[in-house]
Write a structure and sequence with these properties.
The structure holds 2 protein chains of 2 kinds. By secondary structure, chain A is of the alpha+beta class. Chain A is 41% helix and 9% strand. The longest helix of chain A is centred in the C-terminal third of the chain and has 34 residues. Chain B contains 20 helices and 5 strands. The chains are: A alpha+beta, B mainly alpha. Chain A: InterPro entries: DNA_primase_S (IPR002755), DNA_primase_ssu_euk/arc (IPR014052).
């Protein structure tokens, strides 16, 4: 098997994608593939349009310097990390990426001045270098669920545990729309084992750190660490309407259906002991434990069936005994929430200056592209079917796609579908609304007399 | 605000609307006497520092309400309601000048004034609270009629989720953008729908506190600008020195009267120095024992500390004499040193009872060659400091935390961390006076068996 080294001889270079029988890491991701990807496939114009939020210079109300005040960071091949990069235009961004082919590209905040000129401005007084806008972002990583998934752990993910991400997307997405009234929400596959969410409404971009923190805490239910057995504590006499809706519409059904089928969380002693520890009454714990130990060998049912039977028994026991203590009142719900409720990384959401991986990047460990996920169809998303670099290159070689990404919507390549989705369901509605806002702000501004700005 | 020297005072016309808590929206149009300028500010500062102390000690909201009530009555009360109100306003605006001058000062002032406002607000009845909300001119409307009906069930759920068994929905709810009540959102204490939070009348405090904080924060920036561009220079002979002194003034207990814990006798002094003295005093004490001498700065710092710790004048004289006579002889001691020791105890001259130095003062001192006073966290080299901390019994891990604070110039925090490492306990209030360190240490030692090794 011979792989021809590619010299940059222009767009017509054919690269042989190696026949991958025993794939080695470098077959998924390497500098040569990156060159092709960033040389020909990465959607520079779309990313630029998105992050310009309508400030394309074509309207007098536009801020032509807006894009240039956005921070990007590049991580290069040898873990060299370059922060505070900024670009005046799409072509400047493109040129920079094509000159170093970063392994990772992160997007930061829009600052008060160009990040790469920040040293010219003092830290105090009126000209300060400080973030002024930033999307509200969320990061959900399946490794945070390791204590409740039995099929994989660490960096692995499979079809049995990925549904945890699916239900997380649904819960958060519904809340962002219904509770907070956000409209322009982008969900992106993180490339390996999680999802990112970008809320791009103007209101969201202007939120302060305190407000972001408040939203993150609103979403927080799981407070786990090794030291406590009961990681979800639902106090009070009922669930808050947000949690109640999530439970009734999404979590309960998922727990009793797909989760049980995939994980059989009561089928063995190790597994059910963990759940029994969440019940704060010793007597109930022993009662159930005895019952299940006795039935362990006698049953001829499948793992899944056993699990379901035990769950019913647990629910019935708790239902009849829940008046015994306040901590038993919502024990059933607590168990469901522990296994299914989204676990977001709070630190990512709380600060405006936090950097997050850009959509359409490629994950260095898997070679998969960070493609958008449709929140209205997220059941169909399969992380193991996401295009990889080698697949994309294979496709180019077999003539199945155009070498250049342009505005033509007839591109039916694997990546083209993702880009099309990005444009039609996210970018276009977003830009329409941004332009309306720029226009109306401008109209109000010129409507005012010249020196009506008081100090 | 006009600051004048005259004796008379023109009555304020600011009390017309009389909500009990002013919002400090605009600078008051009244004349203030120069003495009041400083005194009012000091009284308010005592309140703010009391608030700071309460928060640092983790008091719950109800305890803070009571604390604020007590502090306010103690320092800000006046039998004449309108005078009390004026003092409230004047003191706030003076402190704005004092605390606008750096980010650190601004942050502290903002936190404390907001907390003060929050608890004063909580102490008001509902009518007064609504009046204050009105003062802010907030555009939020009460939710009524059909809209309220449609929300009732879920509002009831919220009430139940907060621990109330019956879902009694309050009579009045305000529809407010969720951004205005971040703390209620974070703790899921409100219903949120399409970007609006439904805030109950009893939750108004969150709403106004956010507004208050936002307003004061912006005001501080403007005040800073005015200060640096015009006021500081214009007032350099009059208000500026007062303003600059106010932010560094130490307002804690002055330890001039020692408490029951703190009486020590001469025979115990070596043992007590080893077990309970903060590093600065330990060092001075060791040097006295070693060199049989201390220069003036050291004598003042250690001498006053010992007085605060409970060493009686006779014992103090005996201690210094025992050491100094090894070097200078008994006659010289009586002639040159005994007098000033007696002076420190208020037995000579104008009989001022001098107070032991607080950390602030010690940190700002400038020990020269041959001196051993000052704050070791500031004035020692890294190597010497590490050696000294090692002799106090700190492990290398404990030491790193302390050295980190030193590098960031947080000398008092470094001392606090040392305290915590030596006694195996936390010190939430933070060390700001050597005698405080001593007293806390004695409390711990007297209440339990010898602490575990660090």
């Amino acid at each position: 098997m011979v792989r021809e080294e590619a010299e940059s001889r222009g767009d017509d270079t054919m690269i042989d994608a190696p026949q991958i029988s025993n794939p080695k890491p470098e077959d998924f991701f390497n500098v040569h593939y990156l060159r092709i990807y960033y040389g020909n496939l990465f959607p520079y114009a779309d990313i630029h349009k998105w992050l310009s939020y309508g400030h394309d210079g074509k309207h007098p109300g536009c801020d032509e310097y807006y894009f240039g005040r956005r921070e990007f960071s590049f991580t290069l091949e040898n873990d060299v990390y370059l922060r505070y990069k900024s670009f005046k235009s799409a072509s400047a961004l493109e040129h920079a990426i094509k000159s170093c082919f970063p392994y990772k590209i992160d997007i930061g905040a829009v600052y008060s001045v160009d990040p790469d000129k920040r040293h010219a401005y003092s830290q105090t007084g009126t000209n300060v270098f400080t973030p002024v806008e930033r999307e509200l972002v969320f990061d959900i990583d399946i490794t945070d669920y390791d204590d409740v998934r039995y099929c994989c752990s660490g960096a692995d993910v499979c079809s049995k545990c990925w549904p945890l991400m699916t239900v997380a997307i649904k819960v958060i997405h519904t809340s962002l729309k219904e509770d907070f009234g956000f409209k322009h929400i982008l969900w992106v596959f993180s490339g390996r084992r999680g999802v990112h969410c970008w809320v791009c409404d103007p209101k969201a971009r202007r939120m302060t750190n305190e407000q972001r923190s408040a939203v993150a805490e609103y979403f927080r239910v799981y407070k786990g660490n090794e030291n406590n057995a009961r990681k979800v504590a639902l106090m009070g006499y009922s669930l808050h309407p947000f949690l109640a809706r999530s439970y009734v519409d999404l979590l309960k059904g998922f727990f009793e259906g797909e989760l049980q089928a995939n994980q059989s969380i009561f089928s063995t002693k190790d597994k059910y002991d963990k759940i029994l520890e969440m019940i704060s009454d010793e007597d109930i714990q022993s009662e159930l434990r005895e019952k299940w130990e006795k039935s362990a060998n006698r049953s001829s049912l499948s793992e899944e069936a056993i699990s379901l039977v035990r769950w019913e028994q647990l629910k019935n026991t708790l239902q009849s005994k829940k008046h015994k203590a306040p901590t038993l009142r919502m024990c059933v719900e607590e168990i469901v929430f522990t296994f299914t409720y989204p676990r977001i990384d709070l630190e990512v959401s709380k600060q405006m200056n936090h950097l997050l991986k850009a959509p359409f990047c490629v994950h260095p460990k898997t070679g998969r592209v960070c493609v958008p996920i449709d929140p209205n169809n997220c059941d169909e998303f399969d992380p193991l079917a996401v295009p990889t670099l080698s697949q994309l290159i294979e496709e180019i070689n077999s003539g199945g796609s155009k070498m250049d990404v342009d505005d033509d919507d007839t591109d039916t390549s694997i990546l083209g579908k993702s880009i099309k989705f990005f444009r039609s369901s996210f970018l276009e509605p977003l830009l329409k609304s941004c332009k309306e806002e720029i226009e109306s702000l401008y109209k109000t501004k010129i409507g005012k007399p010249k020196d009506s700005f008081s100090w | 605000m006009e600051v004048i020297r005259s004796q008379k005072r023109t009555p304020s016309n600011d009390t017309v609307s009389n909500p009990k808590i002013p919002l400090y929206l605009t600078a008051p149009q009244m004349e203030v006497r120069l003495e009041e300028f400083e005194l009012f500010a000091i009284d308010r500062l005592r309140v703010l520092k009391g608030v700071s102390d309460g928060l640092a000690r983790g008091r719950n909201p109800k305890e803070m309400d009571d604390l604020v009530d007590t502090l306010w009555k103690e320092h800000m009360r006046d039998p004449d309601a309108s005078l009390m109100f004026n003092k409230d306003i004047i003191s706030h605006f003076v402190l704005r000048l004092v605390y606008c001058r750096s980010d650190e000062l601004k942050k502290w002032f903002l936190s404390m004034e907001t907390a003060l406002f929050r608890h004063r607000f909580r102490l008001q009845n509902f009518e007064a609270q609504r009046a204050i909300v009105g003062e802010f001119g907030l555009p939020y409307k009460a939710v009524t009629g059909a809209e309220l009906e449609g929300l009732k069930e879920r509002l009831g759920q919220v009430v139940r989720s907060l621990g109330q068994i019956s879902p009694t929905v309050e009579a009045i709810y305000y529809k407010v953008p969720f951004e205005e009540v971040p703390d209620l959102v974070a703790s899921r204490r409100v219903l949120i729908q399409k970007g609006y939070a439904f805030v109950a009348g009893s939750q108004l405090v969150s709403l106004v506190v956010t507004q208050f904080r936002s307003h004061i924060s912006k005001a501080l920036i403007l005040t800073n600008r005015k200060w640096t561009t015009t006021i500081r220079e214009r007032e350099k002979d009059r208000l500026t020195p007062i303003v600059e002194a106010l932010s560094t003034s130490y307002l804690g207990p002055d330890y001039s009267q020692s408490t029951e814990y703190a009486e020590i006798s001469l025979k115990d002094i070596d043992q007590v120095a080893k077990s309970s003295f903060p590093l600065c005093m330990r060092h001075l004490f060791e040097k006295v024992r070693e060199d049989h001498h201390l220069k003036h700065g050291g004598r003042m710092q250690l001498g006053l500390f010992l007085k605060g710790v409970g060493l009686k004048l006779d014992d103090a004289l005996a201690f210094w004499r025992a050491e100094f006579t090894k070097k200078v002889g008994s006659e010289r001691f009586d002639k040159e040193y005994a007098y000033s020791i007696r002076h420190n105890y208020g037995k000579e001259g104008k009989r001022t009872d001098y107070t032991p130095y607080a950390c602030q003062k010690i940190i700002l001192s400038a020990p020269g060659a041959g001196d051993h006073h000052g704050c070791p966290y500031r004035h020692f080299s890294e190597d010497n400091l590490r050696a000294a901390l090692g002799r106090m019994g700190l492990s290398s891990r404990g030491m790193e935390g302390v050295m980190d604070q030193v590098r960031n110039k947080h000398y008092q925090l470094a001392c606090t961390m040392t305290f915590e490492a030596v006694y195996g306990t936390s010190c939430d209030a933070g060390i700001n006076h050597p005698n405080q360190y001593f007293e806390e240490s004695q409390k711990i030692l007297k209440s339990k068996t010898p602490p575990a090794p660090v």
